[in-house]
Amino acid sequence: MANVTATIITIGDELLIGQTIDTNSAWMAQRLNEIGIVVERRVTIADKADDIRLALDEEIPRADIILMTGGLGPTADDITKPFLCEYFGGKLVLNEKVLEHVKTLFERRNKPFLERNRMQADVPDVCIVLYNEMGTAPGMLFEKDGKYIISMPGVPFEMMSIMTKEVIPRLQSKYVSDAVLHRTIITSGEGESFIAETLEDIEEALPMGIKLAYLPSPGIVKLRLTATGGDETQLSKELEKYQQQIADRLSDIVVVMNDIPIQELLGNALREQGKRMALAESCSGGYIAHLITQVQGSSDYFQGAIVPYQSKLKNKIVGVDADMLKEHSAISEEVAIELATKSLAMFNSDYCLSVTGQLSHGGEDAHIQKGLVWMAVADKDRVKTKKYLFHYGRELNKELTAQIGMLMLWKFITGRI
Amino acid sequence: MANVTATIITIGDELLIGQTIDTNSAWMAQRLNEIGIVVERRVTIADKADDIRLALDEEIPRADIILMTGGLGPTADDITKPFLCEYFGGKLVLNEKVLEHVKTLFERRNKPFLERNRMQADVPDVCIVLYNEMGTAPGMLFEKDGKYIISMPGVPFEMMSIMTKEVIPRLQSKYVSDAVLHRTIITSGEGESFIAETLEDIEEALPMGIKLAYLPSPGIVKLRLTATGGDETQLSKELEKYQQQIADRLSDIVVVMNDIPIQELLGNALREQGKRMALAESCSGGYIAHLITQVQGSSDYFQGAIVPYQSKLKNKIVGVDADMLKEHSAISEEVAIELATKSLAMFNSDYCLSVTGQLSHGGEDAHIQKGLVWMAVADKDRVKTKKYLFHYGRELNKELTAQIGMLMLWKFITGRI
Question: Of the N and C termini of chain B, which has fewer Cβ atoms inside 10 Å?
């Protein structure tokens, strides 16, 4: 047995001019990996018949499955459906079930039902219709040379719904694939070169079928072990043996043995202790609160945040001493401590993280060094502070502040600092 | 004259297993479009020599320029550099300037300088080295059959630095391209079908070289006109004529005639009036504050936010009446109004937007209908409220809340509501 392979073809001028970032491919690849299907190539092309034809002619022989997204909407720039109909030698016929569904959606939204919407219910007579619960454009499954070619709309939540309910079950029943397993270790505190050096002998001794990859991102380096094989239980055991060996070697810098976002790691620690947290975010402008509330169920432990973006609100709302703000400036260890302890009291919380800094040039604190950030974590007994100097642009400095701040709170909560 | 064309090849297993979302390609495409270069294809492949070879063999004949990212790091899974060296028939030689730079970076970070880092200064003797100010892996420019093949690291801010400082100037001096121009109209309030219907005659009468595309996203539909041609001034004039014609037809639902995020539109309106705003975000959990503070210079008009994620904080910190919370629940018009007006006073602001809702199942308000969101906007004289029922998952409902909330505040500020 071996792995079933797939190519993802994304269609859309907006992807080629950079107006839209393709988040669909990553999501689809994850779902495919879960059932042992390996994505070997991804190709992005324009809304042009010739380009779609070339991509299909080239990619169909190379993979077992072709997943396509895009170009299925109701407007003139959407050409994928008529093209596929012609490519696979069919003709468009009205599908009553799809028609009913599209009509219902328009009724629910109180919008007029137009001829161009009715046309969304026309489907090639040579495909299996994949029902689109979330939108008006149905997915389509074609078969050629024993291979599946699947077309879905590019709107992310519509694609996700069709993948989950229609595509994955069909792929599972048609294909039997080797397993593809990943195990990740998240580290913080050293660069990828240093880690690679530390692991050199372990990496060289890895068996043929197991690959180690290094993925640096703001504040962390992820190590990913990947293996493919027929016996999933055995493979999983072997991967975890190497994962443990690596974690033992790196002990100090290992954060978690799982590919989860730091906000989830933090949430798990809080939930385990039955404790709650609050935030006083200045320079990060609500971003940490946003990340934390992306986790389903975060209201169990996240109480809220104050974002005193302008300096005097640190005094007016949080109660940081006005003279202290003047003497030390808003970006100082003293103010970080006051923000954390006063917000802890204001939210009546178990833990509080504060961040205050200057992420880019300009604003009230233009005299402060760009990239300087002070952070503090507090509970009712202890406070810890740390100073950082980030060397990048506004967005990346914000990302670093958020990731490192959440990690600092996690270390504080779990007794590591 | 015609357009110079490019293919983007992104290399990395993490892109094919979906561990990383490719944001680089969109950014690169935008920069290329600005100098008239059209991206016709994007291909994503694994860190495997055979796959890189196939991609180069196929793509070099098809485009004038090949831009590649990824696989240039210091670890064993990074194979792009030795592969390209062999592919273009060169050998690796030490580059003293790169070596000095890499050493300086390690000194600044107080990290040991390792042999594998020294090796990052080895470059093929058949390329032009593209200096990487932000990191340790240099970019490389190869020439073959009169075409440029450019390799850069996949770390976004490193790629961006090399593109801006090294790649774009070289492309501009080598290639003369027709212009590629885009003009966008952002609308809110109608679906793409209805808009397409309204514009049908205008769209049909567009000249050959001008294309209209529809891009629906949460809360808005973008209309994009694209044209290519030799005379940029003439082209721009013509595009703007059609842009105006479309805007006149759609008058009611046009938000802005420019492809800017809603947070920037809102910031511009506030700056014009010399006014400031605050936020009381409950269900959106800091996301709106995050979006607003992504805009450089937002501290001129954004004062701050309170995120009273747990219900009783709406009383304790913002001062919403406890009986009102009990009687109407936290997700009600009454509480949205109180949140907006009380926060307006707390921040001493000119405008305040409040949102309170139930984005997904569970939490304190599990009895409330999923997707129900109340919003209020207030200044010292007026309050406006609106109720929404969103039908999607947690993340998309959050996105809708943020986009629609910011649009509502913008309409309030500019006297549209």
Answer: N
